[in-house]
Every structure is written in structure tokens, then in C-alpha cells.
Write a structure and sequence with these properties.
By secondary structure, the protein is α/β, with parallel strands linked by helices. Helix content is 19%, strand content 29%. Strand 4, helix 2 and strand 5 form a beta-alpha-beta unit. The relative contact order is 0.13. The strands form six sheets. Strands 5-4-1-6-11-8-12 form a seven-stranded mixed beta sheet, sandwiched between helices. It has a six-stranded parallel beta sheet with strand order 14-16-18-20-22-25, with no helix packed on it. Strands 15, 17, 19, 21, 23 and 24 form a six-stranded parallel beta sheet that branches. The chain has two domains: 254 residues, Spore Coat Polysaccharide Biosynthesis Protein SpsA, Chain A; 90 residues, UDP N-Acetylglucosamine Acyltransferase, domain 1. The protein is elongated, with a radius of gyration of 22 Å. It holds the Pfam family NTP_transferase. Pathway: Glycan biosynthesis; glycogen biosynthesis. Homotetramer.
């Protein structure tokens, strides 16, 4: 059955700037907002945009990501004729095993895409926080009779040099692409969201791999090649909330913004839910000594200390006289008595022993890795 559009989510990034948080898991699998993982946003956007065929391209430390996604049932992608498919690198006839870039990852999965016979391919990054209706972007792509449409978002001009920048004419046609320019000519930054006409992209990738093998990355290689050859390339401007959580500070900041009841993501709205694979846990419990304010608390938490302006993921335990402020605490964390935590991210299943101190500051967030033990564990613990 021919598909109008399928999505390919690139989720193989290591995310080295997240340090210990991506030592053993891929960046898109990093927990976010108490009950989600980063990739949940791209997957939920696909489901809400009525895109039922989704390929998830993995590479670095994929075990947790594969387990989380499964067959896509949590996102309603397991229906007949739909599904989420995990696509991992494999050894090809020419001996290549690893994806060399974003475009090369798509080339390596041509057989999967061809099996769905799509007219269009939506290429997404699996490591951004946002809500977006891709069907509106597709309608724009069709209206412009485009070969390629790139999702862009206006950024402050002083920050534009950190992004791939699209320079457009009055109609939105891309006339020039600059990769992290020192003196940007516009503030339209690429979001890493692309819609391609599949037959044309396929031809570019196959012909290139048979000859030059230069089209490894969409930003660095494919977009410039399309522009050089006079293809119809357009920018689709997005004006909603979008966050690249590629650093410890940006991940912490995005989580703290999530605490705002008026957050532009509107996480509680019924008609555009963010779905996730969430384990069952018992109800949360706050003891008579526990104090909670301005905090998201997931199921399974036990709180005997004080918590303010923080996010507690599932099954977090906080001992008496402990203080947690301005922090993201991931699932399964055990925090002992008399502990002080402020401006921190605590990784899954970490143990913070009695009397320990984990304190950072807004510009230098303290980070504890998964399963890490801080302080001295006694027999009483």
C-alpha cells in the first residue's frame, strides 16, 4: 500500500555535551519532564499529525531507546498498516556499518523506505522538545511545489551563528544556506526538520553513492547540492516553542521552564497529547514531615523532606530533613536524610547518601550520572 508520507526519526546521536547523562544511553532516550523521554515529542507529533509509518534510526547505545519505543503502541503507532520500526546500522556489501551522517543514514535505509512506497519523506531529529503539526508543513510543501522544505525558526540574530541559516526571498524560497556563519544574513535557523519528495531524494543519494560519496549530511551536503542544481527549496517558518536540549544547562533550563503552568507547550491540553511508555508505580506519598511546592511529582514518589521548584520522576525517595530545590531528579533515585540538592540533575537510579551535598549554580548545573553513588552508604541506609 502506497504511503503519502512516512517519517524517519534520526535518533542515533551520542550527545557528548550531556556528559554522564549520555554515557550509556542515546541522547533521544534521556528522561525529560518527569515522565517523558526526549524522543517522545517527535513520536507524539507524528501520531498527532496522522503519520502512521515511522522509522527510528538508531546507532549509539540503542538498548534503552529500543526498549522504550517497542512497537510504538504507547504512541498509537501499532495499528494495522502503521508502526514504529527500529532501524539499526548493519554491515552492507561494501563493508560499511556505521552511519556517516544524517543523509547517509537515510541512504542506508532505502530498502525500508521503498517498502512503504511513500511520495514524501519527513526527516526529523529525535532530540528536540516541541509540538508541531507536520501535516500543515506538508500542505505548505505541496502548495509551493517544493522538492525540499526545511523547517526553520527565528532566533536572535546574535545567536544565529550557532545554527545552519536559511536566506530566503519574499516567497520563502531558499536562495542560500550558510552553516554556522560568522556574519549571518538572516535569523532563520534550521530545526533539522525536512520534507523531501522521496523519488528525487532517492535519486540524489543513489547516484552520489555510486560516484562521489559526498552527500553524507543534509545540512552540509544535500541542501547545498539541491540549491546548486536549482531545485525548489522552501523554508517553513515555525513560531512555536522549540528547544534543542543538547547541553546540561539547556536540558536543565527546559525542564525548569516545564514547571510553568502557562508553558507554551501546553502539556495538559487534550487535543495534542505527548505520549510515553510509562511503567506502573504506586501512588505518590508525602509524609507529615514532607513539604512540596512548585514541583511536578510523578507516581511512586516517597517524600519525607522538602522539595521546591523541581521535577521528581517516578519512584524517587527523599529522606527526612533533605532539601531539594531547582533540580530535575530522574526515576528511581534514592535521596537520604539531611541531604542538600540545588541546581542539579540527578540521573536515574542514583543514590545520594545521608548528609551528602550536591549543589551547582544556574550557569554550572551539578550533574550526577545514572546508578552513581554520592557519599558514604552505611548499613543503616
Amino acid at each position: 500500500m502506497k504511503e503519502k508520507i512516512i517519517a524517519m526519526i534520526l535518533a542515533g546521536g551520542q550527545g557528548t555535551r550531556l556528559g554522564v547523562l549520555t554515557k550509556n544511553i542515546a541522547k533521544p532516550a534521556v528522561p525529560f519532564g518527569g515522565k517523558y523521554r526526549i524522543i517522545d515529542f517527535a513520536l507524539s507529533n507524528c501520531r498527532n499529525s496522522d503519520i502512521h509509518q515511522v522509522g527510528v534510526v538508531t546507532q549509539y547505545q540503542p538498548l534503552q531507546l529500543n526498549k522504550h519505543i517497542g512497537n510504538g503502541a504507547a504512541w498509537g503507532l501499532d495499528s494495522r498498516g502503521g508502526g514504529a520500526t527500529i532501524l539499526q546500522p548493519y554491515s552492507s556489501a561494501d563493508g560499511e556499518k556505521w552511519f556517516k551522517g544524517t543523509a547517509h543514514a537515510i541512504y542506508q535505509n532505502i530498502d525500508f523506505i521503498d517498502s512503504k512506497s511513500p511520495e514524501y519523506v519527513l526527516v526529523l531529529s529525535g532530540d528536540h522538545i516541541y509540538k508541531m503539526d507536520y501535516s500543515i508543513m506538508l500542505a505548505y510543501h505541496q502548495e509551493k511545489n517544493a522538492s525540499l522544505t526545511v523547517g526553520v525558526i527565528p532566533v536572535p540574530l546574535k545567536e544565529a551563528s550557532r545554527f545552519g541559516i536559511m536566506n530566503t526571498d519574499a516567497t520563502g524560497r531558499i536562495i542560500e544556506f550558510e552553516e554556522k556563519p560568522a556574519e549571518p544574513k538572516s535569523n532563520l535557523a534550521s530545526m533539522g526538520i525536512y520534507i523531501f519528495n522521496w523519488s528525487k531524494l532517492r535519486r540524489y543519494l543513489v547516484e552520489d553513492q555510486a560516484k562521489e560519496r559526498q552527500l553524507e549530511d543534509f545540512g552540509k551536503n544535500v541542501i547545498p547540492a539541491y540549491l546548486k542544481n536549482g531545485e525548489n527549496c522552501f523554508a517553513y517558518s515555525f513560531d512555536g516553542y522549540w528547544k534543542d536540549v543538547g547541553t546540561i544547562e539547556s536540558l536543565w533550563e527546559a525542564n525548569m521552564e516545564f514547571l510553568d503552568l502557562n508553558h507554551p507547550l501546553h502539556i495538559r491540553e487534550e487535543d495534542w497529547r505527548i505520549y510515553s511508555q510509562t511503567p506502573l508505580s504506586p501512588p505518590q506519598f508525602v509524609t507529615e514531615t514532607g513539604r512540596v511546592s512548585d514541583t511536578m511529582v510523578a507516581d511512586g514518589c516517597y517524600i519525607a523532606g522538602s522539595v521546591s521548584h523541581s521535577i521528581l520522576s517516578q519512584d524517587v525517595k527523599i529522606g527526612s530533613h533533605a532539601s531539594v530545590k531547582n533540580s530535575l531528579v530522574m526515576s528511581g533515585v534514592s535521596i537520604g536524610k539531611n541531604v542538600t540538592i540545588d541546581y542539579a540533575i540527578i540521573g536515574e537510579n542514583a543514590v545520594i547518601a545521608d548528609n551528602a551535598v550536591v549543589v551547582g549554580e544556574k550557569e554550572a548545573i551539578a550533574t550526577i550520572g545514572y546508578d552513581e553513588i554520592v557519599g558514604r552508604i552505611t548499613d543503616e541506609d
